[in-house]
Amino acid sequence: DAAGGLLLVPTAVPGSQRDWIQFLGRTARQDRRGQYCAVICAADYEHMRAKYGGQLVIGSTDSIKTILAWGDRETAARIQASAALYNTGVRMNEMCEELFGARPDLFKNPQARELLVDACQRHRWMSVKEVDQAFARLPGFDPSKVPSEAKDLGRPAEPPAGAVVASKPLNGKVSSVGAGGPAAGVSDVPRVVVFCLDWSASMMSRDTKTPYTRFELCVKSVQIILAKQVRDQDYVGIVCFGPQVATVLPPTPKGVGAQLIRQKIAGLRPQSAGGTHFFDAVLECLQLLNKPGLSTPQASRWLVCLTDGDDLGSRPENANGQLVNRFLQASAPAHLNMVMITVGALKRDMTQTIGAWVQRVKDGGGHGQLLSERDAGNITMAFQVVAECLAADVGGATEI
Questions:
Q1: pLDDT: is 2 or 381 the higher one?
Q2: pLDDT tens for residues 264-304?
Q3: How far apart are CA 355 and CA 342, in angstroms?
């Protein structure tokens, strides 16, 4: 009462000074500045601590300063990545303009066309220098003769674990290296791909600006990925969530269960009852991916999730994703990759929790990505990104 204002008890510290100031500003009343007492879980920031160093001190506001400093470094890294991607894009544009304007004959060469598609597919993981190297592989084309305004700021991002970024030809053949070193034999290893799909009542919404509902767009996108990016030796699993979690299809080799997989996906229907057990569904998927004897130890494991709302109804001990946090810390599957698609406006805590999972996967050497789509009509575009990631995982090329 003596201090006045409101008492704010935040359970999370945002990643920017601006947001934190806004948090504290809500406590002020007239001439009273208000008070705050942060009660946070150290495990939520473990991936940041491991990435940037430093410790959270119990009972000290220095911990808040540390988290805000980590956020500043994350922001700087995103700005750097954005600038690098811009310059890579500038160089790609310069190369393509030269090809279309001066060397259209190359598009009649099947090998040259494949090399061009490969470069376009991977440019988001390539520096300006690597773009030049990729285009140097085209017969009779010299990138050094193409003027450039691009600055080489390095790679915008590292490729997914196991993905390949083509380098110079070696003895007449294309050699490829990736995040995990030489890619020899990588494409022969069966992958495990588990789709975690929201089939709650809200997925029946027709706000996609297409003849299809949200769920129908989702299903069509998954069907395209299965047809074009999932190989016969790969394992496919499907988990759906809404008022409950249902394992529609445990991981099954596509070549063996192709007809069953098609039938299961075609038969998916949204649920009319309320509830979105997202956190419980993610935990179920991780447990499936970690199942002993599934594929081979070196196989990449992909979790692809889509939700159009905040979690509502997961078991109490997992109401904020706590069990998923613990699983990723203690029992995360080897070679785990995670792509999370959210549709609509989710609560900040939900987005931060998912973002922390994605970052933890990236810190572990896998591909982690959060695709937040405000517009439901962009569901298809989000799944196209998934298709690109899966294509890169085995060194393929995709024309979309």
A1: 381
A2: 999 999 998 889 999 999 999 999 999 988 878 888 999 99
A3: 11
Task: Give per-residue pLDDT as tens, 127-177.
Answer: 999 999 999 999 989 999 999 999 999 999 887 655 544 444 433 444 343
Burial of 172 (0-12, 13-18, 19+ CB in 10 A): exposed
C-alpha atoms less than 13 angstroms from C-alpha of 213 in its C-beta half-sphere: 15
Report how far residue 125's alpha carbon sits from residue 131's, in angstroms, rounded to the nearest whole number.
10
Q: What is the DSSP string of 61-128?
A: THHHHHHHHHHHHHHHHHHHHHHHHHHHHHHHHHHHHHHHHH-GGGGGSHHHHHHHHHHHHHGGG--H
78, 138 Cβ separation under 8 angstroms: no
Q: How far is CA 117 from CA 95, 121, 218, 365, in A?
A: 13, 6, 26, 26
Structure tokens at 335: 């070679």
pTM for the structure as a whole: 0.63
Quick one: how far is CA 1 from the chain centroid?
Answer: 47
Tens digit of each residue's pLDDT (9 = 90 or more) over 40-96 = 988 888 888 888 888 888 888 899 999 999 999 988 988 998 999 999 999 999 999
* Euclidean distance between CA atoms 7 and 348, whole angstroms: 20
Q: Give the separation between CA 393 and CA 339, rounded to whole angstroms.
A: 13
Strands (E), 180-265: 181-182, 192-198, 235-241, 245-253
| Residues constituting the chain | 400
Residue type, 372: S
Residue 179 has pLDDT above 80, yes or no: no
